[in-house]
Write a sequence for this structure.
């Protein structure tokens, strides 16, 4: 396990954080990021490679002595990149295409949860817009509507009234807002409570939990505005007590491993359970993601003190029961800065200034939608940066993150100013 060459697939803030953390290992020679972003372009021991298609990624891994690959985003998992690499005897960290249906189809995930007694909201699935609309007309509000397939966190509407719900059904089936491949919709009961992100590594049988975190999914302060991929996150999440932790492992994570086994499949890779915890400490599963969260990865990996290469290696060798992850006891607060128009209509090519003025070892700027052209950084997508600050006091970590943001400038930048407030007031 020395001089390792690793391939990370993806281009977001999550992949920047993964590559940055892997590169800190004394066992790392080089991390390739495909295709990467403006931040991974300049990171120490990290190199971008401009390839994105699975056959090209496979050729690259075969021809460049890659020791293992980590898949960041859901799209490649849903397209079967893990199955393809394994067919060629390449080591790759992530679930197979079959297991990744837990994320790529909300209908699959709900049916799986029902069959395996995993607590979740009551639901109905429709593959027809008229039937969905007729059903909605009979229901109490609020109600939750979920496009079945991948939608980068934007395919869910918590509808306050019927008119909104009906037009979202049109968005899914008629306007193809979430792509032409959406042919089903899940409609589920509204759950009240506090959300948390629970992410683990699974090696087919053993579980290694990552630190807890909480994500801010709505665009605007106070959880207003549309759902996004995530506008900020902090770790650890105070709501995840040791009792809740044990209950999630017992009632949600272990049944996923067992349920997949019963279907003849082995789950390996990261698994992310989005939780809703009510005032009686009952826990329900809002969703599964088959990868590390974005932006949760950024504050979580900021706190990781273990060698990340070693953790993945134990995972690949099915030995996660033999290792523990060590976390810095400080809080990490990560604030996303998104581009003008995000999430509906993100703008590209705004000049980004001020990053060189941030120099503090407890602050890290992870890039997502950025690109470097002639040494100038430009915006290149929806979520542009995630600024993570660490401190033993969460209010201080928050203050440091926002002080750093004050130094950054690009036209149209949008960010929330309440990231981490839920840690001291769960209803904010
Ligand atoms: P999902 O992608 O399924 O996690 O949904 C995105 C977001 O929508 C969640 O993080 C919640 O904020 C909200 N949400 C999803 N399902 C429900 C539900 N049944 N009740 C209340 N809010 C929900
Ligand atoms: N932050 C939510 C997600 O990664 O899906």
């Amino acid at each position: 396990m020395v001089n390792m060459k690793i391939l990370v697939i993806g281009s977001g803030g999550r992949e920047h954080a993964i590559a940055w953390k892997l590169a800190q290992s004394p066992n790392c020679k080089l991390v390739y990021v495909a295709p990467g972003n403006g931040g991974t372009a300049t990171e120490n021991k990290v190199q971008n490679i401009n390839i994105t298609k699975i056959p090209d990624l496979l050729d690259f891994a075969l021809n460049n002595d890659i020791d293992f690959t980590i898949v960041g985003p859901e799209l490649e998992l849903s397209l079967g990149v893990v199955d393809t690499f394994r067919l060629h005897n390449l080591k790759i960290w992530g679930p197979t295409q079959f297991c990744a249906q837990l994320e790529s189809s909300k209908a699959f995930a709900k049916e799986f949860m029902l069959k395996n007694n995993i607590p979740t909201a009551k639901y109905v699935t429709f593959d027809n817009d008229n039937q969905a609309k007729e059903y909605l007309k009979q229901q109490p509000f609020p109600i939750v509507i979920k496009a079945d397939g991948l939608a980068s966190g934007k395919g869910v509407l918590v509808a306050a009234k019927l008119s909104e719900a009906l037009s979202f059904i049109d968005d899914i089936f008629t306007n193809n807002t979430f792509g032409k491949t959406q042919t089903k919709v899940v409609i589920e009961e509204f759950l009240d409570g506090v959300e948390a992100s629970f992410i683990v590594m699974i090696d087919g049988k053993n579980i290694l939990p990552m630190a807890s975190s909480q994500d801010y999914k709505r665009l605007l302060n106070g959880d207003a505005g549309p759902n996004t991929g995530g506008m900020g996150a902090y770790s650890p999440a105070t709501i995840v007590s040791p009792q809740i932790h044990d209950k999630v492992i017992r009632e949600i994570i272990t049944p996923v491993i067992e349920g997949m086994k019963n279907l003849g499949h082995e789950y390996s890779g990261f698994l992310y359970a989005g939780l809703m915890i009510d005032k009686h400490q009952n826990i329900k599963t809002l969703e599964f993601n088959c990868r590390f969260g974005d932006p949760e990865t950024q504050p979580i990996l900021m706190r990781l003190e273990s060698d990340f290469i070693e953790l993945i290696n134990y995972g690949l060798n099915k030995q996660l029961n033999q290792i523990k992850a060590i976390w810095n006891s400080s809080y990490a607060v990560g604030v996303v800065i998104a581009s003008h128009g995000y999430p509906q209509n993100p703008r590209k090519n705004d000049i980004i200034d001020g990053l060189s003025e941030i120099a503090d070892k407890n602050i890290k700027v992870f890039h997502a939608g950025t690109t470097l052209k002639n040494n100038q950084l430009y915006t290149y997508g929806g979520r542009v940066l995630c600024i993570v600050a660490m401190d033993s006091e969460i209010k201080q970590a928050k203050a440091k993150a926002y002080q750093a943001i004050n130094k950054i400038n690009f036209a149209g930048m949008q960010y929330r100013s309440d990231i981490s407030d839920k840690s001291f007031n769960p209803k904010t």
Remarks:
- The mean pLDDT is 96.
- Residues 121, 144, 146, 153, 156, 158, 188, 190-191, 195, 217, 227, 274, 286-287 surround adenosine monophosphate (ligand 1) (CB under 6 Å).
- Residues 242-262 form the longest helix (21 residues).
